[in-house]
Write a structure and sequence with these properties.
Structural class: alpha+beta
Radius of gyration: 22 Å
Number of strands: 22
Shape: globular
Largest sheet: 8 strands, antiparallel
Strand content: 25-35%
Bound molecules: adenosine-5'-diphosphate
CATH topology of the largest domain: D-amino Acid Aminotransferase, Chain A, domain 1
Length: about 450
Amino acid sequence: MFSKILIANRGEIALRIIRACRELGVRTVSVYSEADKDSLHVRFADEAICIGKAPSSSSYLNIPAIISAAEITDVEAIHPGYGFLAENPHFAEICESCQITFIGPTSENIRLMGDKMTARTTMQKSGLPIVPGSTSTIKTKEEALKTAKSIGYPVIIKAAAGGGGKGMRICHNDIRLISSLMTAQAEAEANFGNPNVYIEKYIEKPRHIEIQILADKHGKALHLGERDCSIQRRHQKLLEESPSPVVDHKLRKRLGELVLKGIKSINYVGVGTVELLFDSKNNHFYFMEMNTRIQVEHPVTEMVTGIDLIKEQIRVAAGERLKIHQEDIRLHGASIECRINAEDYENNFLPSPGKIDFCMLPGGPGVRVDTHIYPGYTISPYYDSLVAKLIVHGNTRQEAIKTMQRALNEFTIEPIKTTIPFHQRIMENTDFLKGDVSTHFVQELLKDESKGEE
Ligand code: ADP
């Protein structure tokens, strides 16, 4: 096991990693920007180093500053968390060349799966159905039209190097397809430094279901069930749960086995998530993409499996063998996570940064809060708006919902606006209560609310 690691991240995930390290007996080094000097990840780490100014490009994305901090503090490994440098193969490569263990998959794994076209062909070869679409990147409008004709409208144009729900365009006809192609290519270049795009069939009202996997460096790989992340706004997840109301034991096993075949074919190591779309019209699953890092929503899997994913991630990075066996992994009860963002949902989710004068975190049986906020903490406008993850566990989905309703009522953050009231609306919605949702749920809920006001 490592004796000291550096955490190249901030906010709740940096704190989450520090907690895992404490329990593993690993010392921690935090890095922070000038804007984060009063953050808890700075206070709770064994050592902390300022790596630059507030903008991420000067600090949390500043590779030379992070590597220098790692060298000065003599750490053996770097945990990238999620976002920032977590899926940057170049960063993983630099760590590898500096003899610092990157706590994640190999740079080659990241590069392969980071290119969504390569990821699609890899998974397809392993027998996982992929969303129908192009088999190579689309360069010309003729290629685009040909692909659309073969799969039928509607289609979606996506960036091969995409992420964060950015740069996707839905097209219902030839005219729209041609006009969107060039803008999508330009947007992909501007956002991801790579103009390559591809086309997929646009699945109408799917569910987003993802499979958690965990693999060691000795060829053992496990699947840890699914998360249902259909509650999204603008392709960004807002609420996640495990198990999914539409996945039974038999299906879970089948999907898990297919996914493992895919990741084993590329000798994947570490934690990872394989994202699928579920078309309820024909009960079909399709591979969408793979995320080669720990996900924001990992706690729901931890709650139902009882497995600490961050500790396992660190253990396998240190070369340890996985002690867990596939047959011992069971999903117990149900877990839900609400992402509490500093946003005003009644005002088009406008960011609401600022100082927190008072906060009261919920507690009691079945409640977990992963957060970095405290009274007096100032939410910076420089970073994403996630302020807390409220996670609950119950023996059944209904029990988990009851606990979530109760915990949301207790959760108080003043005076900034948060998405707590929005989650309260979701918890009362009859479709959500029935588990009958799609990725269009939030859009439809907001539409219904604005109609109600007319
Ligand atoms: P990103 O990497 O940018 O997050 P993803 O490929 O994971 O992009 O897609 C994000 C979300 O966009 C999905 O959860 C889903 O809601 C929607 N989406 C992506 N591809 C399709 C598709 N082919 N059909 C319908 N919805 C899609």
